[in-house]
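Deliverable D2.4 — example input (structure tokens):
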């Protein structure tokens, strides 16, 4: 588009009479992203969520003068699985509804409802698992350790996973 603009061509000359068809042709020539990118997007999101969870835990432990931060293995595993599934479903939904002009508002509203519901379930998961789970492994760590782990997870997500998942 920049080359066409530098050559003095209009958008109509570049895209033709049907810009949607032109965009579909360009997208069809792009290589499909590897399946591992879904894994890395999910992993990146998990690292961010866990770093926020640990940071909030260490902050609340300091505010309430608690000696430990509790980390539930069961809720972490379930939330990891749910985040991976939700990431795949969102990417699949976006793939299927990208160039559909009809019912676009409905698709956006449904996607928003799905994302909000998934986040509420994941955020409320520790409450659910501690209430109903009879077997759960919980670690107690010091607030400073929780904070250092949160910063480490954030840095790994930002500079390690992002660079590997999106070269």
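Example output (designed residues):
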């Amino acid at each position: 588009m920049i080359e066409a603009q530098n050559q003095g061509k209009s958008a109509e000359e570049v895209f033709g009479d049907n810009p949607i068809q032109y965009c579909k042709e360009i997208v069809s020539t792009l290589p499909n992203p590897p399946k591992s990118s879904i894994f890395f997007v999910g992993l990146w999101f998990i690292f961010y969520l866990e770093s926020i969870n640990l940071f909030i835990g260490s902050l609340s432990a300091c505010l309430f003068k608690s000696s430990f931060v509790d980390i539930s293995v069961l809720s972490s595993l379930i939330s990891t699985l749910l985040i991976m599934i939700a990431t795949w479903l969102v990417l699949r939904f976006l793939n299927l509804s990208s160039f559909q002009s009809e019912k676009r508002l409905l698709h956006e509203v449904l996607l928003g409802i799905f994302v909000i519901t998934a986040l509420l379930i994941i955020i409320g998961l520790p409450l659910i698992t501690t209430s109903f789970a009879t077997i759960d492994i919980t670690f107690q760590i010091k607030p400073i350790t929780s904070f250092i782990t949160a910063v480490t997870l954030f840095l790994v997500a930002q500079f390690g996973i992002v660079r590997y998942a999106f070269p």
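The chain has two domains: 1-30, 36-165.
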